Amino acid sequence: MNRDFISVIHGEARAVIAAFPDAHFDALITDPPYGISLTKNEPGVGRPNWDRSKICFDESFWCDLRRVLKPGANVVVMGHSKTFARMSVAIEDAGFELVDTLAWLHGQGYPAGFRKLDQELLRVSGGHVPLSGGVSQHRAGQLF
Question: For domain 3-105, is the CATH number 2.60.40.1930?
Answer without folding.
Answer: no
